Amino acid sequence: MAGLNIxxxxxxxxGPVVAHFLTQAGAHVTIVERASExxxxxxxxxxxxxxxxxxxxxxxxxxxxEQTTKEAGLRFVDANDQSWADFPVDDGKGFTSDIEIMRGDxxxxxxxxxxxxxxxxxxxxxxxxxxxxxxxxxxxxxxRSIRADAVIAADGWSSNTRxxxxxxxxxxxxxxDLGQWAAWMTxxxxxxxxxxxxxxxxxxKRMILIRPDNGRNTRVSLWVMPKxxxxxxxxxxxxxxxxxxxxxMFQDAGWEADRVLKALPLADDFYMQKVAQVKLTSWSxxxxxxxxxxxxxxxxxxxxxxxxxxxxxxxxxxxxAQRSDDVQLAFKAYEERMRKFVDVAQKLxxxxxxxxxxxxxxxxxxxxxxxxxxxWTGVLKYLGASFNPPASGMDLPDYDFGNSGKKDS
Length: 409
Fold this sequence. Notes:
One of its GO terms (molecular function) is FAD binding. InterPro entries: FAD-bd (IPR002938), FAD/NAD-bd_sf (IPR036188), FAD_aromatic-hydroxylase (IPR051704). By secondary structure, this protein is of the alpha/beta class. Helix content is 33%, strand content 25%. The chain is built from 14 helices and 18 strands. A seven-stranded mixed beta sheet has the order 5-4-13-14-15-12-16, sandwiched between helices. A six-stranded mixed beta sheet has the order 7-2-1-11-18-17, with helices on both faces. The protein has a three-stranded antiparallel beta sheet with strand order 8-9-10. It is globular, with a radius of gyration of 21 Å. Residues 403-409 have low confidence and may be disordered.
């Protein structure tokens, strides 16, 4: 595919992965990213199954392992910080993967691995696209023009590139709202923090999740399931207004809520987001194709978002490398290979997310009693298909990207 020009929107996870393999195959790749520099924020993410295999083929597995949070597992605690159920790391088959890394650390690792052969344009984004029979003319917000044989939308679940290619209506309808919102932030480490992630439910369908960082700080996420649509408007407001809402929602939550709320005003990496899935009937339109969350976000509660993004990007690059003379045929082959894997990854646990976020104190006790039984009996491994979809649930092709391609050990 020497000489093929590929434009990718998004320098998070999916974009650099597909760029890595495309450049191995000889393509010229440009990545445009709205942020002014590689993003460093974000929550803990899991890498499971085939996702780790692909990172190994990229030659970055060791770098990723060096930056893992060393999370020991997930612990469900009450207001007194007493554990009702412990789920240790179990080779990626439990609630916690053995490869837990901060999203920003993973993104930076992928950027470092590709920056010498991929052209990155930061602080810019796609404004418009005009296609013809041989490619697409793309105009960036800065006024810069780029001619591309194919455009890959890898700019997240609310992808603007997807909206431009598929239309506002189709793009909007593809987002499946799960009725939950989350806010993420970093707070100072405290003596109560250890290598276990701690999950605490409060009445009113509220939840606090405290997780280890890589030794410097502590990561916190707050979760709510509001009955009104207030958060849709609040998402457009300034950060101070958003923080005020979350403070109001959790001021009587108990456990370590006071500690979190005291740190909230100083959290400069705070952001909030709707919990949603993206489901498109087709992953391509003309010369544009979606990858990662932009095309098939399984939601943060699935634990599969990063793995699916990595696998999908690898498959997309492989099909383009095999069919560089017909990118639209390559797009179809990519979707045919990935669709079933994505469908399985998007199947959440029965009743999720509501089941894991009871409305009443009694409901929380019932949930914790059930989880305690599951933890004590060790039956989670037998319920794995219901709680965690298989991260290796497809045959992973071994594409030939050129002599520099890395194979499994």
